[in-house]
Amino acid sequence: MKSSDLAIGEVAARFGLPTHVLRHWESVGLLAPARDGGQRRYSHDELVRVALILMGKRVGLSLRQVRALVENRDAAEEAALLRAQVEALDRRIAEAREAKALLEHALECPLSFHECPDARAAIESWIPAVENNSSAAPVPR
């Protein structure tokens, strides 16, 4: 245990997180801080892991996926996970661009959003089609 190790409150403050988040990440196996008299002590390596978890969450990874990245030493599996996330981000970016285009059109259209034919068409596209014997959830187009 080094004197440079930080207590949970210090780590939480440094990253702008509530302490319960760090405890949760520990409970799911993402963090393993040392203990000193029952107090958690975070080394620089643990700070790196907190930063990695936050970066993973920022790019849309679940905690399970972050854990797989942290624990996995197979480059092919790691690349597959990252590739899948890039594809998911590409889909989200495309959806965000469509949403932005709709909003920009609504701002430029002289008609109200409810009267605009383009907005109406976009709204109508969200109404699920009737399918025989299907209990699948509607998918926006």
3D architecture notes:
There is one protein chain. By secondary structure, the chain is mainly α. It folds into two domains: 6-71, Orthogonal Bundle (Multidrug-efflux Transporter Regulator, Chain: A, Domain 2); 75-124. Helices cover 59% and strands 6% of the residues. Strands 1-3-2 form a three-stranded antiparallel β-sheet. Helix 3 packs across helix 4. The mean pLDDT is 89.
> Which strand order spans the largest sheet, edge to edge or round the barrel?
1-3-2
CATH structural architecture of the largest domain: Orthogonal Bundle
Q: Which topology of the largest domain does CATH recognise? A: Multidrug-efflux Transporter Regulator, Chain: A, Domain 2
* Tally of domains: 2
Largest sheet composition? 3 strands, antiparallel
**Sheet/helix structural class:** mainly alpha
User: Strand portion, in percent?
Assistant: 5-15%
Radius of gyration: 23 Å
What percent of residues adopt helix (DSSP H or I)?
A: 55-70%
Order of helical and strand elements: EHHEEHHHH
Mean pLDDT over the full residue set: 89
Give a count of the beta strands, DSSP E runs of length 2 or more.
3
Distance between the termini: 55 Å
Shape: elongated
Number of helices: 6
- Spans with pLDDT under 50 lasting ≥5 residues? none
Can you identify the CATH class of the largest domain? Answer: Mainly Alpha
